[in-house]
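Homework help thread (please don't just give me the answer)

Our assignment gives two proteins as sequence + C-alpha cell strings and asks us to describe the second one. The first is just a warm-up. Here they are:
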Amino acid sequence: MNIRTKGYIMGAVASAAYGTNPLFALPLFEEGMDSDSMLFFRYLLAIPMMAALMLLRKESFAVRWRDIPLLAVMGLLVATSSLTLFESLRFMDAGIASTMLFVYPVMVALIMTAFCGERLTLRTVVCLVLTVGGVVLLYRQSDGDAVSFKGSMLVMASALSYALYIVGVNRSRLREMASLKITFYALMAGMSAFALRAAIGGELIVPHNWQMWGDVAGLALLPTALSFAFITMAIHYIGSTPTAILGALEPVTAIIIGVTVFGELLTPRIIAGVVLIIAAVTMIVAGGAVSQRIKAAAHHLPHPLRRTRS
C-alpha cells in the first residue's frame, strides 16, 4: 500500500470517527454535564491512549523548546473547535451542527489558496461544489424552525478553528514532527485549557455512573485520540486540502447515527446529499490516484527535449 492510499484511508477513518461526537455527547448533556467538564475528561482519558500508542511504536516524547509554543497553539485550536461545536449542540440539532461544520474544507482550500500559494485546481473546485451541495441537501430544520444564529456562529467558529489546525500542521515545521507526538501534546494543551476554564468557573462535573464514564471513554477514543491522530497522519501523507475534503464522511456518519440511534428520518433529500458527498470523496481520491499514475508513467518516458543516445 503506497503512502497516498494510506493517507486517504486515514483521512476517511478520521472523519468518520469525528462524526461520532453526538453519539456520546448528547447522553452526557442529558445527564447534566457541561461542555468544559465533558471535554476535560475526554482529553484526560485520550492522553494516556495516545501515550500508550507512542510507546507501542517506540516514538520519542522529546520536543524542542522552540516547538512548544506552536504545539500549544495547535492544542488551543483543537480545544476551541471542540468547545464551540459542543456548545452549538445547545442551540440546534446535532445533525444540523454536524452538517454545518463541514464548511471547513472550503475554509482550508481558501486559506491554502490565499496565504499558502496553493493552486486551486478545477477538480478541487468541483469537489468543493459537490460537498457544499451535499451539505445543503443534508441541512434540515426541526418543524420548519429557523436555525439559531448563535448556534450557527459557534459552528462556524468550530469549523474555522479546525481548518486553521489542518493548515497549521501542514504548513509549519510541525510537518516534520511525528504525527502521534503532535496529537499527544495538542491534547495536553487542550486539557490544560479546559482545566483552567473549570478552575475559573469553579465547577467540574465528574461522571457519576458507569454509563457516563463509558460515554466519556467513547469520546476520548473515537472522535479524539483516533480521529486527531489519523487526521494528522493524513495531512502528512496527502496534504491539507484532500484531507479536508475527505472530511465529507463526518456529516455522513452523523446522519447514519441520527437515523439508526436517535430515530431521525431518512428522506430522499438526505440520500441525495449523501450521494453528492460520496461522489466528491470518490473524485478527490480517484483523481489523486490517476495523477500519481500519470506522474509515475511520465517519469519513465524520455524527455522530449533530451537527445537519446543511438
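The one we have to describe:
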Amino acid sequence: MPAIYRFKRVFFERDALDYPMGKEMYQNFKNDGYNVEFLQSHNRVTGIPGKTSREAFYQGKSTLVVGMRRTLDFATCKPSAHFQLPLVTGCEGMCEYCYLNTQLGKKPYTRVYVNIDEILSQAKKYIEERKPEITLFEAAATSDPVAVEPYSGALARAITFFAGEEMARLRFVTKFPYVDSLLNLDHRKHTRIRFSINTERVINAYEHRTPPLSERLTALNKILEYGYPGGVIIAPVILDEGWQKEYDSLLQKMRESIIYDSDNNDIHFEIISHRFTRRARTNILEVFPETTLPMDEETGRKFKYGQFGYGKFVYTNEKLETMKDFFSTRINELFPGTEIDYMI
C-alpha cells in the first residue's frame, strides 16, 4: 500500500462496517498491520494523546477516523466550484500556512466517509436542481482526498459517477502523487485533477510531510497522458525578495516535467497569494514557534474583509498587480493556450 506517512492510529465507527466501502477499508488496514479501534462517532474522538498544542496537532495529524457523513447538505465552494463534495475531511500533511489549521480543532485528525452512495445521490439532486447549467463540485475543499485514496477508493467511485453526468464536473487538488488507480478509469474528461505546487524553498520550509515537487509534477504528467483535464494551484505565492526568480524557476521546471501540447492538453492555473488572519497566526505560532512565514501586519500588507466576514492580511494592491503581471506573462509564454482561472 503506497503511503508517504503511516498513521499511528486508526479508528472506525462501528456502523461504518455496514457499508461496502467501510468493510473494504477495514480489511485494507488490517492487512497493512493496523490495530483498528472502534468508537461511536467520528465527531467524538477521545483516544488522541497530546498535552501541548504542538503535541496535540502532531498526534491529530497522525490519526485517521473512518465513519459516515451524516450532514448531507453541501457547502458552497467559491471561487473554484458551486459545491464541496465531502468525501474526506482533513489531511495528514502539515503545511504551516494551511487555513484548515484554524478550522479542524486542536487535534486535526483525518476523516473518511464510507456512505459514498448517499453522498453521490445528494450530488445528483444538486445537479438536477441546477439544470440546464453545469454544476461544479470540489472534492478537496477541506481535505486532500488523494492522500488516503489507496485505502478508500472514494475518488475512483466519484470519478466514475461524474463520468456519467453530462451536466456536472468534478475537480480536486492534491499534493500527493497516488493517482495510478485513477488512470485507467473512463473519466470522459469530466474530472479535473490539479496539483498544488510551490517553489522548492517554500515546500522544504513550510510543507512538512508532503511529497517533493518532482513527484507532484510526475503525477501531473501521468494524468495528462491519460486524458484528464489537469491544472496546478500555485499557493501560497510568497512575495519575498527574489520571488520572481524562484517562481520563474518553478514554471520552467513544470514545463520541462510534462509533455505539453496546447492542442491536446487541458491545463488550468490558479494563483493564490499568501494571506493570514490574526487567529491563524496565533495557531501557527503555537504549533510552529520557529516559523519563518511572513506574518508582519505592517510589511507590504493591507487589511481586507473576506467573503465569510472575517478580516485577513493580504498583500498591497501594488504587490498583487506585480504578481499578476508576472504570472500572466510567464504562463502565456511557457504554456500558450492554457487558462488562468483566477489570481487573488
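TA reply:
I won't write it for you, but here's a hint about the kind of observation we're looking for: The domain at 9-343 is CATH 3.80.30.30 (pyruvate-formate lyase- activating enzyme).
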